[in-house]
Write a structure and sequence with these properties.
Largest sheet: 2 strands, antiparallel
CATH architecture: 2-Layer Sandwich
CATH topology: Alpha-Beta Plaits
Oligomer: single chain
Radius of gyration: 10 Å
Distance between the termini: 6 Å
Strand content: 15-25%
Number of helices: 2
Structural class: alpha+beta
Helix content: 10-25%
Bound molecules: iron/sulfur cluster
Number of domains: 1
Length: about 60
């Protein structure tokens, strides 16, 4: 599975980092989401789907 994030709509809530810390991180300067990887291993797919559901900005898309 692949994942993309829209940094223009991210509000920096950090829910994704709490849910899937191996995949998401936050920029030091302003807390906006960054990807550690855009290729999600099968072991982390459920975490990433949950992060997409929990994101208050709808900034996370899975493919
Ligand atoms: S959960 Fe959504 S809004 Fe919050 S930091 Fe992650 S991508 Fe940004």
């Amino acid at each position: 599975m692949r994942v993309t994030v829209d940094q223009d709509v991210c509000c920096g809530s950090g829910m994704c980092v709490l849910t899937a810390p191996d995949i998401f991180t936050q920029r030091d300067t302003d807390g906006i989401v960054e990807l550690r990887t855009d290729t999600v291993p099968p072991s982390h797919e459920d975490q990433v789907r949950e992060a997409a559901l929990l994101c208050p900005s709808g900034a996370i898309t899975t493919h």
